[in-house]
Amino acid sequence: MIRTLLAAAMAGSLLVAPPADAAPAKVTDPARYVDPLIGSAGGGNTYPGAVRPFGMISWSPTTTAGDQTNAAGANGYAYNTPRVRGFALTHVNGAGCHPGAAGDVPIMPFAGDVTSSPTADTRDEIYASNFSHDNELAEPGHYRVGLDSGATADLAVTTRAGVGEFTFPAGKTANLLFRVSNSLNGSEDAEITIDPATRTVTGSVLTGAFCGRRANGGINNRKSYYRLYFVASFDKAFSGTGTWVNDQLRPGATTASGGEGYATGADRAGRGSGGYVSFADTDVTMKVGISYTSLDAARKNLSAEVKPKDDVESVAADAREAWSKQLRSIEIAGGTEDQRTTFYTALYHSFLQPNIASDVDGTYLGSDFAVHRLARGQRAQYGNFSGWDQYRAHTQLLALLEPGVAGDFAQSLYNLAQQNGGVWDRWVHVNGPTHVMTGDPSAPTLAGFYAMGVRNFDVRGAFDSLVRQATVPHPSGLSDAGCPGQCEGQRPNLAEYERLGYAPQDTCHCWGGAAETLEDATADFALADWASRLGRGAEYRELMPRASWWRNTFNPAATPEGGYQQARLANGSWVQPFSATSDVGFAQGTSATYTWMVQHDVSGLAAAMGGPSVAAARLDAFFHRPDGSWATGGDGFRYDPTNEPGIHTPWLYNGLGQPWKTQETVRAMASLVYRTGPSGLPGNDDLGTMSAWYVFAALGMYPQTPSRAEMLLSSPMFEKAWVKRDDGPTITVSAPRASATNIYVQSVSVNGKATDRSWLPEQVINGGGSITVTVGATPNTTWGKDLPVDHAQH
């Protein structure tokens, strides 16, 4: 009908076309679409408490299932176990160990008399309280909950400090318990000092031990690497004080010390220290500052960020505005209410990390446990790097949206490496090297930053350091300490790797030889590509051939159906028996998943499988069950959207000449495993990685290679999106007919010029531009035949 009306109008007819449907309005208040409870059930391991973008402090509940040496949720909070024993000051979003990390200094409003040591309450029967989610409010920068005990906690934060307002029922003693030793993983030491004269409570906890309870090497991580200091001041005088150590309550005391250790259950139960302050009032305001360097720094952080007249309302309002500004880095128009909620919550989770670890005056705790100052030009020191996870999606989103933060983060990792004997650890918690997972993720992370225009770090110093790590064996590479899950060698048994061209399963001192080979090939490609950008020919020539060493663990005769990645021994033989569903030689994944982990050489992988059509048919079987339904996890032979090794695979169809299958697969996974509600994430958020995947999927683009800037295209979910690069150029993505049914790309134009490429070049990502995607309900199998360019040598 519209065509008829337009033709009539052009012919001079008096008919007037009815106005087209109004363009959808741009979201102007993205913070209202954020639901911090998404991911707090079903294994997402998120937390709902008050936090700012990249904040040091994150004030959130620690819920309990009846074991004080554990928590109901991996990162402190489990939606389905609404019983709280405190509100801790630090958290890590979505980490996969249980318990995860941090959860330092839980502070509990308790209504009643303190008559026994809270540490002796090993099953959290006395000094904890149930609550109803009907009495809970979680929003960006603000958290409030009414407890069944009658007490209420209302919390808001700045970057390094917070304000809490606590109310108590009349007729019962009002107390705040400071469980200083009760970090999620326990503690080596803790101490508290109460000063009634100044109405302050100060203290610290010496802790760490991330993943220290895992069976696969975790005991090696039962060690401390940071001390968190806190300073809390109150608006009301104390009517009483007390402390405790282990099972001994000390009414009237003002000091205590003692840690819990890093064990669990009976080996730790009943150990620890803390203190409490009591009030004659039923409402109390507390202001708290934290630091990783000293009590004095915690005081300065509090003084600089929380003003005398600030209260929860004013701090929460400022936090909401900070979040709205941050979330407007991507503005969208269109989509459903649920899609907007899922999208902006994913973007929110992506901005929770890395976490600022430096004080307002520029001091920070190094990996050598000494206090340092920021490098020249560095604005902040950051901690928390889940490298094995984040380099596959999160770090690229960070570089795209916040290149300034990405550069400071790159400098932060370089600083920590210099303080760690030149070793870039693959999983940094705050400042501490934990060795968790496998591979060398800092190489693709920093190379990707550089490719995406990030320059505000010591580029040549970091590059040289990473090349040295990749080419000069380190003594730790021959150690089995922490293996398999937390092997200390960052490039394990590098000399043997260089001699054989692969990581041998029997002598690699790593989690899995085939996985290590794939990770190192990815890292070596990243360094070689970075070397070419820097004009470093010698490093390029040395490292680029190693980017193809994935071929040395690809066994073309692994099964009658085709080749797979397979663990290999130092004598050259394949580890037998072999199954594509086995995890022998791999880390948190199977051969069926890891075989696709060659993003930098998709054409080479396709050729090894028998050609693009054969590879595409194998992908079809990877994504679909025998009955044709989508695979969404739980089957080692097929796609697992809950973990990182294969999250790039939906986009591989672009490199095989069948991009319409990328479009339907990405959209299927985004709708099947991402949703609103507490169980809305498919797996551990892993410091924003799973959330970043969804952000890219909604925009209709994804990094072709972790260490470069090209983006593979799928179909956008929103009719329009404006992607803003931190005051830099804007990338505008338009898909006027985007909907739940119009999931197939019909045509694409970039800056007004039609293109048959199923990817965006680096120039668009770094220089900005306008992308228009025409979408429809049926596949266009002729668009996108121009294959993405691999940059590996063949």
From TrEMBL:
The keyword Signal applies. GO terms for molecular function: hydrolase activity. Residues 298-776 form the Glycosyl hydrolase family domain. Coiled coil: none annotated. The keyword Hydrolase applies. Keywords: Hydrolase, Signal. Residues 1-22 form the signal peptide. Residues 33-291 form the Glycosyl hydrolase family 92 N-terminal domain. This is GH92 family glycosyl hydrolase. It comes from Amycolatopsis tucumanensis. The lineage of its organism: Bacteria, Bacillati, Actinomycetota, Actinomycetes, Pseudonocardiales.
